[in-house]
Design goal:
56% of the residues lie in helices and 7% in strands. It is built from 21 helices and 12 strands. The protein has a 7-stranded mixed sheet with strand order 4-3-2-5-8-11-12, sandwiched between helices. A 3-stranded antiparallel sheet has the order 6-7-10, with helices on one face. A two-stranded parallel ribbon has the order 1-9. The longest helix has 34 residues.
Length: 636
């Protein structure tokens, strides 16, 4: 630090001016002069002591640079401690860094002490002399000066000593970590080198591949096909060579062994050749099934009866009676709403009798889960009829009302009694009530026209024959099931005169009819009648000829569903049933784009129905919600 002459002169002249001003205010006499001189010496000695104390305390005071250096030393010590637990690849304090830190500390302390000594000397009025040195930027002090004696380069302050000690400790710890982690550093460096080399190799390989691809000549489509065909032929020859010795050995073996190698190779190739569009046909299915599943998009939501044998056998959870019933449903050996409902309730009674409650479980809840599984199985075989679903709903309601303090045998007897009463009341007595109300409408000379086969219409006609009413019946039938033939056989067995026509001749025989009596699969809440496909056409022709149409339906067939067409919900049948023989125009329809639609039911609007005959009363179609409200246990 260089002190200029102008600063020294200004500092020296400032003290005498202050003394002159003080002396002017006091009277001039010898006593005062002596007192002033004594006070002056005392003040000077006090100022010197204060300057020496300030110079000593200056070393004790910490500047900002010292604090920063101490913080850096502490941070470095902490980092050195972390290096032991984490990774050795961190910055290490070396001896060079230690020396630089100590130099900074010494320079900062000397500069700060020199500045404070200068201020003290300026206050005392003793100018500092600048010693000539080789470096003009470094100031020199007299050795006799007390302010300079405190900051000689040989002595060190307390903070410097602490900083040096911390730096030494950090250096020792860093040296220890270097020795222990030398091997780890080598492994890390090797991994880094490998990572740097690997991308270079990976970058070089595609370049070589592209150069080789550029060198290869481009092949045309015909050449590629020829190469693929040659490869396929080579594979076929190799497979033939492998199968040849196996077949030769199989000839001498037993017949059971002969069958195994012959099934393996050929059929897979045939399926691959036939299925030209694998996206449309599902895997592991024959081409015929795949083509049957190709429906019109408008009817993709409709359900078809499944005849797959895997649903009916090898299922331990399905009761044998339910498995048998599912086969009968899918093969259409049991047809009709009442017949399907009665068969379901009889099978359900067998399930209840053979059921065993698991340990630590309640009878009602465990039986409910078992029955639900069986109902789902029947639904997979064929979609459930409305009558079957309503009966299942009533059975579930009865399960919830079972008392919990009775033994299992009594509970099974209660459920069996409920099934018997349901069949008797909802089907048997309901048919008798409908028949008694219809007998008033059938008179001598009537010609009754009916469609397909209905057990309720058959019962009404048989009751009228017992009453010796002179009437005759026209049975209208349609393909593919031709259920009217069974109706014709039953009526003829009771001696009722009948006429049998197909639906295409209904317009020819309709003028002869006096009443049209139709059965129903279900009666919907909006008044529409869901019945066998063709019922709506017969009702339309009867309406055009002003012939009354009476629909006979029990209340257990009433449904809360709303439906105005036959596409929203229906059941699909097998399209191959529409093919009569080999000469039919629909023969081999799978090879063409034509997809025959074989619906089970149709919807008859209430405008074409004169009245609905139930066990409650003869009502219009619009009164179905009233019946559902009076009997809330009906419907689903």
């Amino acid at each position: 630090m260089v002190v200029k002459g102008e600063q020294l002169s200004s500092s020296t002249t400032a003290v005498p001016k202050q003394k002159k001003q003080r002396q002017r205010n006091r009277p001039r006499n010898k006593r005062n002069r002596l007192e002033d001189n004594g006070a002056q010496f005392e003040k000077e000695s006090e100022m010197q002591k204060a300057a020496s104390n300030q110079s000593q305390n200056a070393s004790a005071d910490k500047t900002r640079e010292q604090i920063m250096s101490e913080r850096e030393a502490k941070k470095q010590a902490k980092l050195a401690k972390k290096q032991k637990s984490t990774t050795p690849a961190t910055t290490i304090i070396t001896e060079v860094e230690q020396t630089t830190i100590t130099k900074k500390l010494t320079t900062t302390t000397t500069t700060t002490t020199n500045d404070k000594a200068e201020l003290a000397s300026m206050a005392l009025g003793t100018p500092l002399k600048v010693a000539a040195s080789s470096d003009p930027a470094v100031p020199a002090c007299k050795p006799a000066d007390s302010s300079c004696a405190a900051t000689t380069p040989g002595e060190k302050t307390r903070e410097q000593i602490k900083a040096e000690r911390e730096a030494k400790k950090a250096a020792k710890q860093a040296a220890k970590t270097v020795k222990s982690s030398a091997s780890n550093v080598d492994t890390v460096t090797q991994k880094v080198n490998n990572l740097e080399v690997a991308p270079r190799i990976a970058a070089a390989e595609p370049a070589l591949g592209t150069e080789e691809e550029k060198k290869k000549p481009s092949l045309s489509k015909a050449e590629r096909r020829a190469i693929q065909e040659a490869q396929r032929a080579a594979k076929a020859q190799a497979q033939a060579k492998q199968t040849a010795p196996v077949s030769a050995a199989a000839k001498g073996a037993a017949s059971s062994v002969k069958k195994t190698p012959s099934v393996t190779a050929t059929p897979v190739k045939e399926v691959k050749r036939d299925s030209e569009s694998p996206g449309k046909s599902p895997a592991k299915c024959s081409p015929i099934k795949a083509e049957r599943e190709c429906k019109v998009k408008l009817f993709n939501h409709l359900v078809c009866a499944n005849k797959d044998a895997s649903l009916f056998i090898n299922d331990a959870r399905v009761h044998p009676s339910i498995a048998r019933l599912g086969v009968q449903y899918s093969e259409r050996t049991i047809v009709g709403s009442n017949a399907r409902c009665i068969a379901f309730l009889h099978a359900l009674r067998q399930v209840v009798q053979d059921f065993e409650t698991p340990a630590k479980k309640e009878f009602g809840r465990s039986l409910d889960g078992a029955v639900k599984y069986h109902v789902d199985h029947l639904n997979k075989c064929r979609p459930l009829a409305v009558s079957v679903f309503n009966a299942y709903k009533q059975f579930k309601n009865q399960l919830t009302q079972l008392p919990g303090d009775k033994p299992e045998t009594e509970l099974k007897e209660l459920l069996g009694h409920f099934i018997d009463t349901y069949i008797e009341n909802q089907i048997g007595k309901a048919a008798q009530a409908i028949s008694s109300s219809m007998q008033e409408k059938i008179t001598d000379g009537d010609v009754l026209l009916t469609f397909a086969c209905s057990s309720l219409i058959q019962f009404i006609c048989e009751e009228a024959k017992r009453r010796k009413v002179d009437f005759r019946v026209i049975v209208v039938d349609s393909r593919p099931f031709c259920e009217g033939q069974e109706m014709l056989r039953r009526l003829h067995a009771h001696g009722i005169p009948c006429t049998y026509v197909l639906i295409n001749a209904v317009g020819y025989v309709m003028p002869e009819a006096t009443k049209v009596m139709l059965g129903a699969h279900a009666l919907l809440a909006n008044g529409y009648v869901m019945a066998r496909a063709g019922t709506a056409q017969v009702a339309l022709v009867a309406n055009s000829h002003n012939v009354p149409v009476l629909v006979c339906c029990e209340t257990h067939k009433f449904s809360e569903r709303f439906q105005t067409d036959a596409i929203v919900y229906n059941e699909l049948c097998d399209p191959n049933q529409l093919v009569m023989n080999a000469k039919c125009c629909l023969n081999n329809w799978q090879k063409s784009r034509l997809t025959p639609l074989n619906l089970s039911y149709d919807i008859t609007p209430p405008e074409l129905v004169s009245a609905v005959v139930t066990e409650v009363a003869i009502l219009p179609c619009t009164s179905v919600p009233v019946i559902l409200r009076i009997k809330p246990d009906i419907g689903y």
